């Protein structure tokens, strides 16, 4: 039986390892079960209202990209087919269907690997103050949302629950995980972004920036977690893109804009979202999936 929107999972026979803003992760011993709920966050605050099918959209899109990059980088995915999952997962098959990934357990590198191809968001704010983005000099007189001459790699720390990621220099990253590993992560992140941006543009979408995560399994570098979803990337419709303003997007910028216009402040309790905001947010996620993968939501 199909399940309704899921804000939080409850699987008594499985060991809950962590709850993130969106994902619930269960420890299966030598592997993990990652379940994408329908939670949505804005400004690092989880909203009380779910976005129907959001977890399924994120999982399906991540799976598309993992297959897309399968010849470029090793990855942690074992299967998204619930029938393949270990026996303890099977009683929860209905809730897991379409929104979960069975993955290898990796030693997660403690950095978000961010690649920026366009000057927007916190990068734009940084540039306005310093002429740089995360310490990387850019040409003078650039405008908001302008394409950066060459994509730049700007790592950040992975925040503890409730905290904020902090931008760090490549040198700081190198000191933490070693020069060779940092260079490998930077180079593969830039290759993934460049290939994804080229493909997305062929589907009428600009990939402005993205955030990737990596881990190690027996010393081998693995692409892990979600990949190139609207939660981890900025996707813009190419036919409505223009320099000089923050473009319309397929990500949760629509929700952020709604919250700002409503007068809500981060210090306030998160509000219930109106039905039209939920529907419009869902439609943006779904359109990103359809345009990028060429398929609608699989049941």
From TrEMBL:
- One Pfam match, given by its short name, reads SAICAR_synt
Keyword Ligase (UniProt): yes
> In Gene Ontology terms, what is one molecular function of this protein?
ATP binding
Database matches in SUPFAM superfamilies = SAICAR synthase-like
Species: Desulforhabdus amnigena
Starting at the broadest rank, the lineage of the source organism is: Bacteria, Pseudomonadati, Thermodesulfobacteriota, Syntrophobacteria, Syntrophobacterales
> Into which family does the record put it?
Belongs to the SAICAR synthetase family.
Task: Classify the source by domain of life.
Answer: Bacteria
Write the Enzyme Commission number(s) for this entry: 6.3.2.6
Metabolic or biological pathway: Purine metabolism; IMP biosynthesis via de novo pathway; 5-amino-1-(5-phospho-D-ribosyl)imidazole-4-carboxamide from 5-amino-1-(5-phospho-D-ribosyl)imidazole-4-carboxylate: step 1/2
Query: What name goes with this protein?
Result: Phosphoribosylaminoimidazole-succinocarboxamide synthase
Which PROSITE patterns does this UniProt record tie to the protein? SAICAR_SYNTHETASE_2
Keyword annotations from UniProtKB, A to Z: ATP-binding, Ligase, Nucleotide-binding, Purine biosynthesis
Family matches, as NCBIfam families: PRK13961.1 (NF010568), purC (TIGR00081)
Could you state one GO cellular component term attached to this entry? Answer: cytoplasm
Q: Which reaction does it catalyse?
A: 5-amino-1-(5-phospho-D-ribosyl)imidazole-4-carboxylate + L-aspartate + ATP = (2S)-2-[5-amino-1-(5-phospho-beta-D-ribosyl)imidazole-4-carboxamido]succinate + ADP + phosphate + 2 H(+)
Is Nucleotide-binding there in the keyword field?
yes
A GO biological-process term: 'de novo' IMP biosynthetic process
Q: Where is the SAICAR synthetase/ADE2 N-terminal domain?
A: 17-265
């Amino acid at each position: 039986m199909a399940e309704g929107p899921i804000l939080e999972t409850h699987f008594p026979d499985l060991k809950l390892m962590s709850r993130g803003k969106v994902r619930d992760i269960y420890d299966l011993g030598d592997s993990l079960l990652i379940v994408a709920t329908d939670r949505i966050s804005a400004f690092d605050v989880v909203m009380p209202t779910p976005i129907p099918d959001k977890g399924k959209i994120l999982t399906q899109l991540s799976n598309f990209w993992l297959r897309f990059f399968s010849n470029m980088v090793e990855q942690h995915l074992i299967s998204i087919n619930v029938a393949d999952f270990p026996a303890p997962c099977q009683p929860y098959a209905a809730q897991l269907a379409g929104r979960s990934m069975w993955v290898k357990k990796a030693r997660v590198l403690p950095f978000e690997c961010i690649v920026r191809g366009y000057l927007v968001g916190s990068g734009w704010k940084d540039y306005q103050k310093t002429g740089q983005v995360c310490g990387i000099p850019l040409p003078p007189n650039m405008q908001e949302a302008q394409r950066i001459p060459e994509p730049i790699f700007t790592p950040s720390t992975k925040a503890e629950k409730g905290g904020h990621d902090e931008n760090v220099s490549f040198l700081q990253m190198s000191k933490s995980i070693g020069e060779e590993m940092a260079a490998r992560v930077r180079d593969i992140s830039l290759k993934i972004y460049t290939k994804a941006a080229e493909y997305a543009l062929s589907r009428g979408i600009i990939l402005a920036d993205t955030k990737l995560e990596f881990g190690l399994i027996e010393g081998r570098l693995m692409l892990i977690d979600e990949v190139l979803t609207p939660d981890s990337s900025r996707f813009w419709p190419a036919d409505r893109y223009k320099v000089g303003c923050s473009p319309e997007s397929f990500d949760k910028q629509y929700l952020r804009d709604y919250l700002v216009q409503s007068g809500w402040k981060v210090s306030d309790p998160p509000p219930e979202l109106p039905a039209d905001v939920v529907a419009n947010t869902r439609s943006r996620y779904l359109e990103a999936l359809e345009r990028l993968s060429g398929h609608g939501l699989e049941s």
